[in-house]
């Protein structure tokens, strides 16, 4: 039983103060993300300005990671949480709680975006759907690939064994990755985050392709976690060897 408890992370769930701060951090970060990026999407829906929407997503995520990263890691994305779980950065019980807070933050943020937007400009509130002539399986593949890259970058940031190998600002690296992925994917599909799609879908009742935006990013996050853990991450042997060399 003790071994099962250690695997699930029951002990760290008893540190209620720390847990509350982490859960609130994930809720607040996701709430702010949905509020702002949906507002940016609504403001640019008529001219479909790819660059503006991409920059809004990247800059907002970078800002939220800077704000919340020291508390919870600033996941604000179930796909990132899945990748972190596979790599051992978070235990299963806490991962479930993080995803629950992300879902709540998504719906709350989407509700605020709905309330503050003018009805004639609101459209579908930025609900994610495969664009014209893009099949669901094509959208799934794009979501998988883009999220794989995003989660791989996040895991490289979380990897403490890399030492000084990582260059520059972690929030900036994540934000730039998201901006690039959005620039590439907006003509076909645009989510990279299941809760980015969930909130508007709930508010507007648009569930036509919601499975694409859960299955694609979650699969990408899962595979990214496996690849980073076994192929890209610094092993304990390499880490100890590098420590002895100094």
From TrEMBL:
The chain crosses the membrane at residues 23-43, 49-68, 95-119, 139-158, 170-190, 210-234. Its main location: membrane. Coiled coil: none annotated. Pfam families: MIP (PF00230). It comes from the Eukaryota. SUPFAM superfamilies: Aquaporin-like. PROSITE patterns: MIP. GO terms for molecular function: water channel activity. Keywords: Cell membrane, Membrane, Transmembrane, Transmembrane helix, Transport. GO terms for cellular component: plasma membrane. It is a multi-pass membrane protein. It is found in: Cell membrane. Belongs to the MIP/aquaporin (TC 1.A.8) family. This is Aquaporin. It comes from Spodoptera littoralis.
